[in-house]
Amino acid sequence: MKHFLLAGLIGLGMLSSAEAGYVDVSIGDHLKLYNGTGNGTGGEYDAVLQEFDGTNYVPTATTWSTFCLEVDEHFYYNQLLKVNNISDTAMSGGTNTNNGDPISFATAWLYTQFSNGSLVGLNSSGTAENGNYNDNHAANATHLQKAIWYLEEESLGVHNKYVDLALAAGWTSIGDVRVLNLMRYSNGQLINAQDQLVLLDPGPEVAPPLVPEPSTFALLGIGGLALVGYGWRRKRQVA
């Protein structure tokens, strides 16, 4: 389980609300994460890019909303985090990601729709479409986080309607979605922190499209049925 230890939301009142969309972030940048909209553990998180003013790291106007990829990795709200790498893979986050876990095409589709503001809402049980995402923001944020966990084979995942929609979309790449591989400072050293999703501003950080994901095609080939059981394993090659 994640452990979120609130370090105090100092200065948060001065920040604008995090908005999803393309983000201009690079390897070596620093950011802080805050508790965003949602019920229970996980995202949405509000990410705020930081800059060094010669004395301290201070918030910039670059903010966005993101979601957890690793339920057994840690970070503190309002803690300074370093972007150690930008990749397509969650790294060193416990049993499922210690050896690297590439994000699925379905997760990338969901986060892109969310970031573009085009993701539908779900009913309270998460079993059917219902209005727009922001109509019941907190509940839908929780449904989306659980769908991402499910698609990434994390222990708190739930197979809900978002999973079905993502698989039916049939994406064969991760588009502009990437993983921020984050580090946090502890006793003067950098250690692994919980990796997060980002939609990159198109540019040199965005790699060419990836090859099709065989398991996704197989699922769609049987009438769009979603994942069967929690033991399903994702297999994908990077071009």
What does this structure look like?
With 239 residues, the protein is an alpha+beta fold. It has one domain. Helices cover 18% and strands 25% of the residues. It has helices spanning 105-116, 137-151, 161-169, 214-220; strands at 30-35, 45-52, 57-66, 81-87, 89-90, 101-102, 120-122, 129-132, 177-186, 189-192, 196-199. The strands form three sheets. Strands 1, 2, 3, 4, 9, 10 and 11 form a seven-stranded antiparallel β-sheet that branches. A two-stranded antiparallel ribbon has the order 5-6. The longest helix has 15 residues, at 137-151. The protein is globular, with a radius of gyration of 17 Å.
How large is the radius of gyration? 17 Å
Proportion in β-strands: 25-35%
End-to-end gap = 33 Å
| Number of domain units | 1
Query: How many helices does DSSP assign?
Result: 4
Main β-sheet: number of strands, strand sense, barrel status? Answer: 7 strands, antiparallel
Helical/strand content category: alpha+beta
Order of helices and strands: EEEEEEHEEHHEEEH
**Total number of strands:** 11
Global shape: globular
Low-confidence stretches: 1-20, 207-239
- Percent range for helical residues? 10-25%
Q: Give the integer mean of the pLDDT values.
A: 79
Q: What does this entry show, briefly?
A:
The protein is an alpha+beta fold. 18% of the residues lie in helices and 25% in strands.
